Amino acid sequence: MTVTAETTGPAPPVVRFAVTPDRYRHWRLDVDGAVATVTLRVDEHGGLVPGYELKLNSYDLGVDIELYDIVQRLRFEHPGVGAVVLTGGLERMFCAGANIRMLAQSTHAWKVNFCKFTNETRNGIEDATEHSGQTWIAALNGAAAGGGYELALACDQIVLVDDGSSAVSLPEVPLLGVLPGTGGLTRVVDKRHVRKDRADVFATRSEGFRGRTAVEWGLVDAAVPRDALDDEVARRAHEAAAASGRPPDATGVRLTPLDRQDEGDTIAYPYVSARIDRGRRRVEITVSGPPGAPPDEPVAQGAGYWPLAVTRALDDLILHLRTNEPGLGIWVLRTAGDPGRVLAYDAQLRERAGDWFVNEVRHYYKRTLKRLDVTSRSLIAVIEPGTAFAGLLAELALAADRQYMLEGVYEDRDPDADPATLVLTPANDGDFPMGNGLSRLRSRFWGHDWELDAARGRFGEPLDAAAAAELGLVTMALDDLDFEEELRIVLEERASLSSDALTGMEANHRFVGPETVETKIFGRLTAWQNWIFVRPNASGPDGALRRYGSGRTGDYDPERV
Amino acid sequence: MSTDSRTGAAPAPTGPLNRVDYSQRIPNNVGLAGDRRLQRALEGWQPKFLDWWRQLGPALPTKDVYLRTAVAVGRDGWAHFAHVPMDEYRWGIFLAERDPDRKVHFGKHKGEPAWQEVPGEHRAALMRLIVVQGDTEPASVEQQRVLGDTAPSIYDLRNLFQVNVEEGRHLWAMVYLLHAYFGREGREEAEQLLKRNSGDLNAPRILGAFNEATTDWLQFFMFTYFTDRDGKYQLGTLKESAFDPLARTCQFMLKEEAHHMFVGTTGVERILERTAELMREHGTADVFPYGGISLDVIQRYLNFQYSVSMDLFGSEQSTNAGNYFTAGLKGRWMETRREDDHVLLGVTRELRHVEGGEIRTRTVPLLSALNLDLRDEYAADCAGGVRRWNRVLAAAGVPDRLHLPHEGFNRKVGVYAGHHVTPHGEVVDETTWRAGADAWLPTPEDRERVAALMIPEYEYGKFAGWIAPPRTGINDQPVEFDYVHLADEGLV
């Protein structure tokens, strides 16, 4: 087996995912009534890491973090926006995709994590179109190459300028020896229904296709002359906005800066905390329940609304740990608080689902749970006295790879505590579907409908350890004599296994049942891409990725594997 | 406590001694009284153990037996003698004293402090090692279950029972580790130790040699000499373990194992003494007609027991053994006294194997051949015992000698498996081997002739005609001491 040496670029920085619009370096957001315009104009010298220039509107993680922030703010801060136009701020170039020098100098882990985040952001764009009444329309004012075209593919509609030169293309295979891994291959055939042979031609032709052919093949929805582009896009945007169910007069909820305290190896947000144990290569994450009853008007609490505050903190924590703490292979998930209060919020999220703000909170929590599902860490839920795995918080336990539940109480430490319970609600049965389109409960009991029905029959009921074990909701229910020792051994054992094998194993077990565009992207496309990334044909000294821009193309080993 | 005027009071135990309520029954030095988890586990397990003992332990009904009981780890405490009804034997839990400064002294963790708890990384492997070791302990009790019916003397009967109760205690020792350190899975494995039974078609013991029936006392002595000695060597490797509780448990077990060796060594020795006596008296090698066991039959029993015991060491080349060593789970025999780096990367040794119809050697990494390393130590030890036996023959003026067969003889495991090697080390074809087998391994007829001699002798101080009495009794008691009180005194 050939092992490719990791590229020795500058050490990756600690990445912060929290940004605010006043600090965008690469994007501009203009809101005009029901239509927002998001313009990409990358600051060439604004790379996250030294060593490359972001020419031709190419992007790196920093550019994408801003885009993610825009997608989020449009949904929460701009309830009146029903259509979003995505366009480029350079002449004749919409976006050239991910910066190749950046990719060439990055470690494997950095590339993988970068792709995961960009994929999640593009899925978020589709989620906004589908569930938020914010239809994204790509206005390609110039060439859209590679990741640039993949960005367009995430939009509901693509309008390409027909100027005789601007093309859409996926040049990764012919030029770089890698895949268009941000959903490109998948969306061309699965979303835009481009015929297989044409997709094959398209993805091996570095110059791509222009105007008429691009429309004919289904690569774009329309190709219009330069002087008609704005009108065509505006027409489509207004049409989409008119069909949107978003409230034109509602006041948005400002996503105020996160209250995050980092102290040594602890990270604390108002309802989420993480304690890092580097020696044991794990992090103990605790999500706390609400301080009281839910408010009459959720939107009035804004970013302080408990489910939103929890979600934002979790989202930031997941991204932080994933990017900046790759050595912490095990996440131990706990909850804390009064399950009754959690259930009150759980009910409100369902009863008020028609409210634009509550709808956004629900979908944001859904997306955050999906982030957890595709996180390459072992997730272990610990259910013990004082925890509040109920309804939406029980999703954290169900998202985990294993669930350990204490039967009874810790006799020596707190004999008078109430034994832990687990409470399922309809929230676990469809409110927060996974990427495969199934609820976590349904995924858990895939092929065992009678077990699913048995669990459904107990919604709302506090299930003690015996009942939870009986229903198959926990991996192990142990009393206090065995619990801590078992957990210690399990976690140590886990930490001793191959991190790569665990990542692959977990990703396989977590997604049962049907394939969707999402599961294909995170499964098939990503797995192949990550394999190709470590192969010499891409990243070896003579590989295409390494040689890009050197005036020489890659020398390939012709042998098929 | 059962002492009486003849045996006197037990010596006062020294060393830490801890008794919980039911601990009159479970002497221990593991703090059982303060360990709720262990108490619960043992409460669940002990009745099952007693059931097992009643069903599959010694079949001969006895009132009581003069037994050694370990009541503490100190000098006197571990060997406390008294007449005890066997099912009231106090199976205790003892670990050798802890050395707080003990370090791991081999493998990749060399120099680190010994482990006081199971590292998660090694849970599965450690549990497997303990289960395999634990599985052999009750197996031999099951194998020897009916031997009491044909005991050559009350003295030998007592020794059999002593071996049996101590194998029972060794089971306890392994069960203790499973209960104390391996959680629920450990408890389940502990129960399985009682569910598998020697020779049971559906749930046999794990290792082959422990599913062979012990047909007679000659085989019993051979078993305690050769097969229990394998146990001694396995314990010796576990005594080196980085997992300190396992190391300390095995260290203490080795003390008791020495007695089992003694029973085997002296048992065979006494048979030889009697055989030589009869050979001289009657001027013939065939002493069966005179109530003795012929030397050639003894040699065949030896060949059999030695070869099946050699199989217990596993394949000469074993990835597992190397992994266990490197991980610190299992050392070599006398690891601390070996003069090398105790890591063994790059070290090689010679391995004999069969190739092209002859035995050749090739060089292999030592790490991959640690089973062989241990087996060689064992074989050297066995040879010492055979020399001792031969001195008995020489002293009696008999020119014949016993020999250990070649390491490749009658092997079912490892590099010799599938080949046919004679006791003298010649590689032959299957036909030749089969033709010679009756001369090398006990035949049904041999076993029948030995079995015919197995008539119980329960009178105090008397011995069956095929075995000489020992020079001395147990614990300074006379040979004719009433070591066992049978339930039905009418048998005497």
Could you characterize the architecture of this molecule?
The complex is a heterodimer of chains A (561) and B (492). Helix content of chain A is 41%, strand content 17%. In chain A, the strands form 5 sheets. An 8-stranded mixed beta sheet of chain A has the order 13-14-15-16-17-18-20-22, sandwiched between helices. Chain A has 2 domains: 21-243 and 533-545, 2-enoyl-CoA Hydratase, Chain A, domain 1; 261-504, 2-enoyl-CoA Hydratase, Chain A, domain 1, CATH 3.90.226.10. In chain A, strand 1 (27-32) and strand 2 (35-40) form a beta hairpin. Mean pLDDT of chain A is 95; it is low at 1-7. The relative contact order of chain A is 0.10. Chain A has 22 helices and 22 strands. In chain A, helix 6 runs antiparallel to helix 20. Chain B has one domain: Ribonucleotide Reductase, subunit A (Orthogonal Bundle), CATH 1.10.620. Chain B has helices at 36-56, 123-143, 154-181, 183-195, 217-238, 244-282, 295-311, 319-327, 370-395, 430-440, 444-453, and strands at 62-69, 80-84, 348-355, 358-365, 420-421, 427-428, 484-486. In chain B, the strands form 3 sheets. In chain B, strands 2-1-7 form a 3-stranded antiparallel beta sheet, covered by helices on one side. A two-stranded antiparallel sheet of chain B has the order 3-4. A two-stranded antiparallel ribbon of chain B has the order 5-6. Chain B starts with 35 loop residues before the first helix and ends in a 6-residue tail after the last strand. Chain A binds chain B through residues 411, 476, 478, 481-482, 485-486, 488-496, and chain B through 36-37, 40, 117-121, 123-124, 181, 183-184.
Would you report the number of β strands of chain A? 22
- Rounded to an integer in angstroms, the radius of gyration calculated over CA atoms of chain A is 24 Å
Greatest interface and its participating residue counts: A-B, 16 and 13 residues
* CATH uppermost class of chain B: Mainly Alpha
Organism (chain A): Nonomuraea jiangxiensis
Pfam families (chain A): ECH_1 (PF00378)
GO biological process, one term (chain A): fatty acid beta-oxidation
Protein name (chain A): Benzoyl-CoA-dihydrodiol lyase
